[in-house]
Amino acid sequence: MKQQISVKDLGEIPYQEAWDYQEALLQHHVQWKIAQRDGTAENTAATAHHLLFCEHPPVYTLGKSGHMEHLLVNNRELQEKGIAFVQTNRGGDITFHGPGQIVGYPIIDLERFFTDIGKYLRFLEEVIIRTLADYGVQGARSKGETGVWIEPENPLRARKICAMGVRCSRWVTMHGFAINVNTDLDYFNYIVPCGIADKQVTSLQKETGRMVPLEEVKGRILHHFATVFEAEMIAQER
User: Fold this and answer.
1) Is the pTM higher than 0.85?
2) Is 194 annotated as catalytic?
3) What is the mean pLDDT of residues 215-229?
4) Superfamily of domain 3-236
5) Residue 147 pLDDT more than 60?
6) Going by C-beta distance under 8 Å and a sequence separation of 6 or more, which residues neighbour residue 211?
């Protein structure tokens, strides 16, 4: 039996609101698993899997291993530019979320797939690499750096197109990936993206030379997510 993953598109939503929503789903599953272990669960229904899609208003987020000095503007400048700032509990350093970017938050019980965070991240990267290939863009991994890159082997041309950062509690995941589709890349000028000073960022629009419909890209992501994770994707209404 394939695992079923419920897919919900939250549309444009503030970062903190989406974080709270993820946290509620994760905690529900964690508490259920604790109750199962203790023999106090009210029923034997298994934990559910979710994949949330959304876009965020402009925001810089700093992961728990990040460094404040990688934010290159002060609070006044953030306010003037209309950009929020949130310190979060995902892995990784600083990144940007904003319009034209697809953010994916899988809340998955890895105990029903495999208990290996490194493998999970490689699977997420593979989903994005296959999605980019559908548009004639060759994505790749960069040794020692999470996410998806273009030409990572070339120090002068290496550029990141998809950032990733996750959290896992009792093998239930949250946070996830952010792929630049039609993103305004100027926002990245005010941070050291992912704490990596010597590499650029890019977008699917920049690589293909055209605007790419977000809904189309989401469809490709879902197709490859189902294949890579050997899962059935079940669409839910907003």
Assistant:
1) yes
2) yes
3) 98
4) Bira Bifunctional Protein; Domain 2 (3.30.930.10)
5) yes
6) 182, 205
